[in-house]
Amino acid sequence: MRKISANCLIIAFLALLVLGCEKNAIPEVTEPVAEDMSYVKFFFHAEDAPNAGFFFNDEKVTAENSSGEDQEQALDYTSVYPSNAYAVIPSGSGELEVRTLEAQNLASTSITTEAQNHYSAYLVGTSENYEIAFIKDNLPEPNHDLIYWRFVNTMANIPFSVDVYAIRAAVPATENSPAEDARVISLGQGIPYKSSGEYTELAPGSYTFKVFPSGTDYDPQESESFLEHGLTLASLGRVYTTQIRGTYTEDPGSSHIDYWRDR
């Protein structure tokens, strides 16, 4: 924790109003920090898990999320920390754990991170077996003219791998531009539980992100998907992830799919 606290002091004067070191929290940062630090984003994707927090080498690394002065709170299903960036931890090897407010250990795993690299940590599974999925985020080089998207599968008990597509809607002709046909962009084939696809470049437009069971017959544009959501992409220079989460059901709902900005 000595390294983390020192890092907070270094960046505090640069971010006094919007960043900082909360009690029991790692600073939320978007710019490079000390060379011996790694970036991690934490997700709570176990649908039936009690409120909990992530700990790295026995130090809490997710925020209090509390309106009380001293009352420590934990995060619940669908929560993300930090909300719009990455936290920082010392690079190297260590033990990542998820604990309840009563100090019950829900899951743990040994991790190794490389300095200045980005990662996502997910609490996944069910009450029978909670786990931590730890995935390296191979972020593309910053480019203010492009949009990138990837997919992560964290749905517990899912009985199949998935194929994922971004379907860009057709664009009608205007006075200044010709019509564009609908486009089908693959975000990955055969993606198993606790795994991800690669970041893929997408053009601005209206998209439907569709998830299909691998090995089945389907038409990406016309077939009914296992899960899907729709978005309009307009902000260039952004990097996102669509995720499926929670526990498998044959008829999943909107809480089982979401997207998040990585950069």
Automatic annotation (TrEMBL):
Domain of life where this protein originates:
Bacteria
Query: Per its record, how is this protein called by name?
Result: DUF4397 domain-containing protein
Q: Which UniProt keywords apply?
A: Signal
What span is annotated as the signal peptide, if there is one?
Answer: 1-20
The answer to whether keyword Signal applies is yes
Q: Which organism is it from?
A: Zunongwangia profunda (strain DSM 18752 / CCTCC AB 206139 / SM-A87)
**Residue ranges annotated for the DUF4397 domain, each copy included:** 38-165
Q: What is the lineage of its organism?
A: Bacteria, Pseudomonadati, Bacteroidota, Flavobacteriia, Flavobacteriales
